[in-house]
Amino acid sequence: MARHGITYEDVISAISALKGQDKNITIENVRHFLGTGSAGTINQHLRRFRQAQNKTSKIVLRGPMPEFLIEMIKGLWENVLSQSTEQFVPIELNYQQEIAELKTELEKYRQNNRRWQQLFNQWQQEKMALTHDKRALEQALEHYQRLSLLAES
Fold this sequence. Notes:
This protein is mainly alpha-helical and 153 residues long.
């Protein structure tokens, strides 16, 4: 039976766990964490991971971030949030209005359904009463026919 190799996702999970444990990301540590995998395969996945990390450049701070920069970032973030809120409020109101209209329409359909159910039940009762009357009339007719045959003989 062929052995299934480790995947890139397996290595990413191992990297994440190792970072959480403050361990170095090495082929040996990844292999130890996974409990399997060839050095070559792990190396390929590590290389792919590092290339992806290089493409998305990280900001590495050499010291504490200046207060004015933090305030500027906060201001920008608040601006982004307020603009997004302003854009989404009309959309949300529109959807709330549509939902309210749909609920109203749904209630109308439910009321119609209840009315039709009542009419159907009434029709069923009338049908049963008419069926009962028909049987009674058929029995009476048979009885009178027998009586008239007996009277003729």
